[in-house]
Fold this sequence. Notes:
The chain has 123 residues and is of the alpha+beta class. It has a single domain, classed as Zincin-like. The chain contains 6 helices and 3 strands; from the N terminus they run ααβαββααα. Strands 1-3-2 form a 3-stranded mixed β-sheet.
Amino acid sequence: MRYEPAVFEQLVAQAVDSLPDWVRERMDNIAVVVQSWPSADQLKRSGIGQGRTLLGLYEGIPLTQRGRGYLLTPPDRITLFQGPLESMSCGELSLQRLVRRTVIHEIAHHFGISDERLSELDI
C-alpha cells in the first residue's frame, strides 16, 4: 500500500497528536519530518546491518543531556521513513499502528531512553 506523501505526513501528524498532553508539552526544539527512504549515511550512522531496515531515526541531543550550552542549537530531528513503514504494513490500520509505534520510539530517544531500555519495554 503506497500513500501520497501529504497523506502519509497526515498519518504522522495524527500519531504525534495522539500522544498524551504531558509528552507533547515536554517535546522541546524538535522537528518531526517524513522522508521516503533512509540514506546510506543514515543507515551507516544508525548501525543498521545488511538486510535490515530503518523505520525512524532520532538525531539530536536528548533532553537528559542538554545543559547550559544548549542555546541556539538547531532543532533535534525525528525522521519517519515512508517506504519502509509502508513495506512493513499490511493495510491502513497496520500502517497507522506502526507509524504511531515508531513515533513513540523516536520520541522516547528525545527523552533520553536508550534502545536497550525500549527493547525491555517492548517499544
